[in-house]
Design a protein that fits this description.
This is XRE family transcriptional regulator. Helices cover 20% and strands 26% of the residues. It is built from five helices and twelve strands.
Amino acid sequence: MNSQGEFIASLRDLKQRSGLTYRQLEKRAAEHGKVLARSTLADVLAGKRLPAPDVLDAFVHACGEGDQVDSWQRARASATEPASAPTARRRRSRWWPAAAALMVLVSAGTWFAVSSSRQDLPDEYGTPAAMPASPVRIRPVAAPDLCLTDGHVRDGRYGPLVAVQRPCSAVAPQTTTFEPLARGSYRIAWTHPQFGKGCLKVLESGLLEPWDDCTKATPFVLERSADEYVLRVDGLGCLGIEGTGESAEAHVGKCDQRFVIDAA
């Protein structure tokens, strides 16, 4: 192959042979200690840019052909048609990115220890709330311009994408919905027209990760007072943000943070 088009076509064939989704490829790359953002890979396979050498390395390893990385790097070097220049001015990635936007909860201060007791909830938060089926935004009361979305943990301790807080203006075209479950609980679903659907699951670390299999997602109970909500997970605590500012990670812990949920 001696052109960018041929090289990109070969990368698409490699993904097809792997039989893996974008999210699965990202996780496989992380298992090899590498970073492979789904949004970056989507741009590469759409022909919008050539992959950087480290992205190509992560992708080939994730596809199970790590022993052929050198051959792929040589093929990349021979693809002389420029591909990355047109995308250098693109806004940051749209969905499942290293810096995408979804809806998040901002903390008014530092994060506290995990609480498993519903008694941590203020007395006024006692009634489960009904949620609309239409797309919504989840915004922290303390930072109403931020919404819950996906991104990477800031210290790099965990490779796959997790829930973080980002500017609400960067969320589209992703949508967020609350899907009703039994006993007044809901799962939080993120859907993108290209990358599909993922539902939030609380990990052992307290981080929240979007999973393809929504049947394994974590149920949330919404406790409402006026126009504010506490998002509770039975036996674990409530949704909150560790730290402050853009890209701060969402965690499940003490029930001391409130959110506004409104139409997107």
